[in-house]
Structure formats: structure tokens, C-alpha cells
Design brief:
The structure is a single chain. This protein is an alpha/beta fold. It has 2 domains: 2-187 and 370-390, Rossmann fold (3-Layer(aba) Sandwich); 197-367, Glycogen Phosphorylase B (Rossmann fold, 3-Layer(aba) Sandwich), CATH 3.40.50.2000. It has 16 helices and 17 strands.
Amino acid sequence: MKVALVRNRYTEFGGAERYLDTLIRRLHALGHEVHIFANEWKDVKDVSGSCLGGGTQRSGLCFHRVPMIKGLSILKVISFALNAKRLLKRERFDIIHSFERTLFQDIYRAGDGCHREWLVQRRRFEPWWKTGLVRINPLHLMFLWIEKRLFQPKNTKVIIANSRRGRSEIIRHYRFPQDRIQVIYNGVDFNRFHPSNRQRYRVPVRRELSISESDSIILFMGSGFERKGLRFAIQAVARLRDPKLKLVVVGRDRFTRYERLSSKLGVEDSVFFVGSTTQPEKWYGAADLFLLPTVYDPFSNACLEALASGIPVVTTRMNGVSEWIEEGVTGISLNDPADIAGMAYAIKAMLRTRDTGMFFRRKEKMDCLSFENHVEKTLDIYRKIIKKEHGN
């Protein structure tokens, strides 16, 4: 199959990025011709010439640079969507699979969820004046304009949602045909994210951060701190008032606001900001608990990786991964990310658990959430679309 995959940035940082990278490698290993349409991509070694029809070939993959106007975010969004459409129309592909809000695709993977639902959820936790500004913000209006067209049945053949929650949101807001929205849960690399990483990384990471081996590390990982609820995580740590609890924040975003909050609440010595990482397994291996009190997340890859690594997870029901949590066994899902008392209780309760990995890594879950299963389900959708197109 000749497959075009569309994503604005193909980088090494973030759960969604790791997911896309793994999918690309698996498709290529299976012998499919993979074309990546992106504005920027990580360094890929082994540059070996040009691809037929355009693009640069690297490590057997064809990369196509999608021009994007720099500067204002709204210009980035619309220029990428329009230029991606223009470039994709130049060449014939069996499947065009978009991971971005675009205007020309066969399949859209709603990995970023439903923007209209995100705006609904964030209103619950922001002042009225900010809600008013968001409503007239040109960037959000542009996202909604693209999303409305993306979720029209004539423009997209199949939507892939990564949770039942995400599927229901799209149906509720846009009335997309239910039989054309498939739920395929994210896959996870059970070899890379393994409980044995604890023996490898626990001591070195603690030495690196000057954290005692007797202290408990609460890990927060993810970019987009506001949406993922970092302020609530810091407030929960402050409420616990336990100097032996350390919150380690891994991710790409601006720290200043949260450093000020930590200082204001008197926990500046208990909160560590370490930036982005290309070795997430290292941080899971050092942690005792994973905390993500997200306001909205269709399905957190980081939570799934933490569960596979044998770490209990405290998150919210606004996170699609909660569909895979065994309450009180592998984690706790809160109804409200602003329930600081409830979060503090959940942290204390789950820090007392043991052998989380044994429960989560049962065969039926590993089979369902393996990347092999994920890729096969994705390919099955590809085949059905191609079969319908060719009428056989």
C-alpha cells in the first residue's frame, strides 16, 4: 500500500509523537510505502535520495515538507491545512491518513480529541472573562471551522477515535455517522515500558535530582500543562504537606507560572521541572506513581506507558485511558480535576499499592493494547476503504 501520513510536527517528544513514530516504523517494516507530510521532522539518518513523485527519502521513508506561515498560530494552522491539501492532491495514494486537523484525507485519527468538547470542559475551570476571550479568539474559531468540515461525512471516510469517550463526543457535537467512527485504542510497547526499568533507573534518576531513595516520586509527564492539570497536581502535593513526596514534571511548556505557584504554596523544594525527554521509560522507572489530573485528554499515551511500566495512575474521567484503569487496583479516576482533597486521598491510597504491573500486564490486556494489534486494526480499515473504492 502507498500510504500518506499527515502530522504538523514529527518529533521525538511527547506520547502522541512516540505513537506516530512507532506506527510509521511498523508500517514500513511490513513493506508499505510510507510518505510523511509534515512541516518539520526529527533527524532521520541515512539520507538516500529522492522519492518518486517528490519528497526526500530517509531511511526508506518519504518525507514531504508542508510549507507553513510562521508567526501567528492561526496562520500556522490554516496554511498547513491548505498546503497539505495542495501537496496531497499532486500524487495518488491508496490511503491518506491524517493525524492533524486538515482538509483532505480518507481517515482522520482524532488523537487530539474534539476541540469543541475541549472548549466546553475548560470553561468549568477558567474565569468568565477568559471564557469570553476564548469565544472570540480567531485561533479557536479557525480550529472549529476546520473541525466542522473535517467531521462532515462527505469529507472524511472514517474517523478513528482512541476511546469510547472520544467517539461519543464527535457523534454528540457533529452527528458523524456512528458506523464510520471506529475505536482503536492506542498501542504501547510492552518491552520498552516494562516494570524492570525500575531496577535500571530508580537509583540513577534519584541521584541526578538529589532525591533520597526513601522518598516517593510522583511523576507528571506531558506537554500542555494547563490542559493536563499541572496546577491541580501542585495543589495536591501542597495539601499533602509531606516533605518525602516529590513531584517531578517532565514535558515541554513554560515553567515560570508553575514555579511561582509552587513557591506560593511552599512546595518549591518538592517540585522538580526537568524539561522534555527522549527517554520517558527512564522517568517511569524512577517513579512510584503517575499523576495526570487532566481537564481534557482523549487518551493519554503517557498514562498507558506508566501502567505498562507497573506504576499506579491517578487521573480523571475526562481522560479516555480511564476506560482501562481498574479502580483501586491499577489506579484511580477522579470525577473532577479540581477536587484537590480527593486527589490527595487517591495519591496516598495508590502509593500503598504493589505489583500494579502484574494486574495491568495480563495477557488479554497486553494482546488488546499491543502495537501489533493496533497496526493490524488500522490496516484492516485501510483495506476496507480500498476495497470499497475499487468495488471488490
